[in-house]
């Protein structure tokens, strides 16, 4: 666990706070953020539920993984469940992690599956004594966490867009061999983001309409802004999905063209050899009386006929621009 207490004239952070320290902050006037990065510890969760009076249903939602993003109101807090998507290798693989946020009067609690997160920018902003985050309430801080998660969706989408453009250029220029699996991997990533962003948009839509004392009116414009961001991401996802479809069509067309080129080459070769095969078949018959068999120059004349027929056919094909 990590706890950060903050206010206009207060900032300090501490690792592994005990229950008494948390209760002292809870009873005070300052705001604080408690970040929990191990949700498998049932004893810890139970202890926190007693300190913050977390409802058993909310506790079950925190423990259960891969839930659909949602927002729920309780007596003295609001529970927000979102999916944090991020990449550790420049968009090649997308990892998903559930983040549960509890918004209270003077506190925000985040529950994560692993210590890795994308909230470093939030921590930096908290250190600024003149920043908006230190002055506004916990509802604004909860918005800032959601905004950081949505911004990461943007980065993932940009990485996918760049990779789609690279694949398209590679297919058209043929500077490297592109596999169909590479294209479908990008499609899978788009579906993964879309599966998360749609319910996130619904979550923010509900948040905009909440009439809860924990949500101040001055925070509404910020929530509306992040809602518009999710709408924009969804529109971009639809565009990228169409790009993937177009890319598959280009890929299949390119394969068809290559196959046609191969078939054309083989057909031309087979066509050239058809008359040669015919002549070889005629003179390969085992008849006793064939005039050309006993002729001194018959063998060389046969080769001359073969070469002449091949040359004439090649010249004819070239004139027709068949190759």
Automatic annotation (TrEMBL):
GO terms for molecular function: cobalt ion binding; cobalt ion transmembrane transporter activity; magnesium ion binding; magnesium ion transmembrane transporter activity. Keywords: Cell membrane, Ion transport, Magnesium, Membrane, Transmembrane, Transmembrane helix, Transport. GO terms for cellular component: plasma membrane. It catalyses: Mg(2+)(in) = Mg(2+)(out). Coiled coil: none annotated. It is found in: Cell membrane; Membrane. Pfam families: CorA. It comes from the Bacteria. Mediates influx of magnesium ions. Alternates between open and closed states. Activated by low cytoplasmic Mg(2+) levels. Inactive when cytoplasmic Mg(2+) levels are high. PANTHER family: CORA FAMILY METAL ION TRANSPORTER (EUROFUNG) (PTHR46494). This is Magnesium transport protein CorA. It comes from Cecembia lonarensis (strain CCUG 58316 / KCTC 22772 / LW9). The gene is corA.
């Amino acid at each position: 666990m990590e706890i950060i207490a903050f206010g206009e004239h207060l900032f300090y952070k501490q690792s592994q706070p005990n229950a008494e320290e948390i209760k002292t902050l809870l009873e005070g006037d300052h705001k604080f953020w408690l970040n929990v990065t191990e949700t498998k510890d049932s004893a810890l969760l139970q202890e926190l539920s007693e300190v913050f009076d977390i409802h058993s249903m909310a506790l079950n939602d925190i423990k259960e993984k891969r839930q659909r993003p949602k927002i729920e109101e309780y007596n003295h807090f609001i529970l927000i469940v979102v999916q944090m998507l991020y990449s550790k290798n420049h968009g090649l693989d997308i990892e998903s992690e559930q983040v549960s946020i509890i918004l209270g009067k003077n506190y925000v609690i985040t529950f994560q599956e692993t210590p890795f997160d994308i909230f470093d920018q939030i921590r930096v902003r908290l250190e600024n004594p003149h920043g908006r985050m230190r002055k506004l309430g916990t509802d604004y801080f909860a918005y800032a966490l959601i905004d950081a998660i949505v911004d990461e969706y943007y980065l993932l989408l940009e990485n996918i867009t760049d990779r789609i453009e690279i694949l398209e250029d590679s297919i058209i220029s043929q500077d490297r061999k592109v596999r169909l699996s590479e294209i479908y991997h990008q499609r899978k990533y788009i579906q993964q983001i879309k599966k998360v962003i749609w319910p996130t948009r619904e979550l923010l839509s509900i948040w905009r309409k909440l009439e809860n004392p924990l949500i101040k009116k001055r925070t509404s414009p910020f929530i509306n802004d992040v809602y518009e961001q999710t709408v924009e991401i969804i529109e971009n996802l639809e565009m990228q999905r169409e790009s993937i479809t177009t890319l598959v069509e280009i890929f299949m067309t390119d394969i068809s063209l290559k196959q046609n080129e191969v078939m054309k080459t083989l057909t031309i070769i087979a066509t050239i050899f058809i008359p040669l095969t015919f002549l070889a078949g005629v003179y390969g018959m085992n008849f006793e009386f064939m005039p050309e068999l006993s002729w001194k120059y018959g063998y060389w004349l046969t080769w001359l006929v073969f070469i002449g027929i091949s040359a004439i056919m090649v010249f004819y094909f070239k004139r027709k621009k068949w190759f």
